[in-house]
Design goal:
single chain; Rossmann fold; 11 helices; 12 strands; globular
Amino acid sequence: MKLFISKLHYKKDLNFIEKVIIFLLRIPGAIYTLAVNVRNKLYDKKILPSYSSKSFVISIGNVTTGGVGKTPFTLEVAKYYLSLNKKVAILSRGYGAKLSNKTPRLISDGSGSLYCAQDVGDEPVWLSDNCKGAYVVTCSNRILAEKFIQEKYSPDIIVLDDGFQHRKMKRDLDIVLIDAKNKFGNGLLLPAGPLRERISNITRSDKVVVVNKSCDSKNALKYCDFLKKRFKKDIFLCNIVPDYSYNIITGEKLEKDSKIMAFSAIGQSQGFYDFLKNDYRLIAVLEFEDHHSYEMEDISKIIHFAQEENIDCVVTTEKDAVKIESLIKDIELPVKFFALKLKAYIDIREVCGI
């Protein structure tokens, strides 16, 4: 149901039943909208206090639900500051974790993930493994996470992954990401639409980055010009493009034009499938809900589906790969599991203003 509703948020031509569903969802949406507006007003008026960190805090977030590209962008920001010999800590909520995230948990001390993705969430594990040198901490309470990492390592830079709505902590740089293709969906707040808060609240940010997950950046550049006029801010373009697909277990690269099946459990997954169509023959797709926690029965389902389509190669995202690796690494499989590696192109120095 969650996946179905998420697709409705971005669907342009709704049938009668779908229109009725969105209409009914606007009723609880009105209550959510009121609560969000009141909360933001209390922070704007400084009635609700915000915590100040000793470190330089960078928030990376958006005004819509998942799938915009926050995590790979967070990686680029963290790697940039590491290249400047800064001590960097990434704070993540750890969404989808099996282990409790109510207290701070050190996912990486800089050497890579200390946990598996099923236990602490796919995003912090992926960041830990792809950003060696950075500390990664999860906790639903970012203030507790900040105090924990401050006492343990005293970082120069703290990066809040998905932090735009987390106004309990003051930030020195507020970066908002917008998807170039899906934009703001139907323009409605949750649960009738994908918006976490009003679009106009983007003016609260310091920098806006448009994330283009297409091999053609022409339309994305036009959208940047539109947003620049609307929000009177500098708008930056981040192009995320496919690099190659690799075997999750062996590292072997997948040959171009191979016949494949794809599966994923991410928000706004269409961009991932579009990337695959550029280099491979995508025969079938199997989707799970965003942040789905994979079990062996899911692996069996994927294999069965692939075999029905006479396919021996399945491709997923790197975020999904970290969740299934422990499930498939010690068993013999009739199909090969690959992950698509992406590359992000953006001048991080220009965005960060340093």
